[in-house]
């Protein structure tokens, strides 16, 4: 019998962190799930890989080894190998907050109109970091797009928000049939594929079908581990190039009318670079105080 849930993990050059995640996933209090690990590492310690192969002896784990595929192609490979009707996505440097993480994902789908949702992210102190006066704004913009197509996130919010625009790349889930209906994730982009997927999915979200943001289940973001794509160490120039690719390769493809606002979007990209570096300072403060 096929499992009801497929947990899909993409991994690149973080075998040790992947093993820690797999150990937590194997300890989940749930009766029908599989773990699809798309492993693409080219640099690793032999002892870490030995542990990975040992863990993969568990019947719940399906380990697939590939040369580096890139984020969206690796995600699509995970879907290709998955058998569950609900797909849960988690990055290899994150950890579910509790042993009920999978069951809470599945429980949400008792709502027949729910297509997919993003669960809350938490940092080391586990508190919501947003100031009280911001809450009214976050309730309206969490996981949504501005009129210019630029994304708001607020993934550490501690309230449920219904009818959002997009799903985060980690601690998100979706009904498999809807992922297939949207055509899976674009492999023509290096990252930010969650946004191109959202634009592809949006035309199908009619008659009350929707995406949500939910405070449960929560996921621990591990700021002490470098991201697989190295984004936490991007220079200002490289981060600007990253945002510019979003504008040209995603926004202009799915919302071509926004080309008229190109100068404004360039200003947004500069502001985004500043915000990213401010966030990096904030995250580094967690590491130093740990």
Care to describe what's here?
By secondary structure, the chain is of the alpha/beta class. It is 38% helix and 20% strand. It is built from nine helices and nine strands. It has helices at 15-26, 46-55, 71-81, 101-108, 135-141, 176-181, 193-201, 236-254, 262-289; strands spanning 5-11, 33-39, 61-65, 86-91, 94-96, 114-122, 161-164, 172-175, 210-221. Strands 1, 2, 3, 4, 5, 6, 7, 8 and 9 form a nine-stranded mixed beta sheet that branches. Helix 1 (15-26) runs parallel beside helix 2 and helix 8 packs across helix 9. The longest helix is centred in the last third of the chain and has 28 residues, at 262-289. The termini are far apart.
Key traits:
single chain; 290 residues; alpha/beta; nine-stranded mixed beta sheet; 9 helices; globular; disordered C terminus
Biggest sheet statistics: 9 strands, mixed
Number of helices: 9
Task: Report Rg.
Answer: 18 Å
What is the helix content?
Answer: 25-40%
Shape: globular
Note the run of SSEs as H and E.
EHEHEHEEHEHEEHHEHH
Classify the secondary structure makeup into a structural class.
alpha/beta
Proportion of strand residues: 15-25%
Distance between the termini: 44 Å
Mean pLDDT: 91
Number of separate strands? 9
Runs with pLDDT <50, length 5+? 285-290
Outline the secondary-structure elements.
Layout: E1 5-11, H1 15-26, E2 33-39, H2 46-55, E3 61-65, H3 71-81, E4 86-91, E5 94-96, H4 101-108, E6 114-122, H5 135-141, E7 161-164, E8 172-175, H6 176-181, H7 193-201, E9 210-221, H8 236-254, H9 262-289
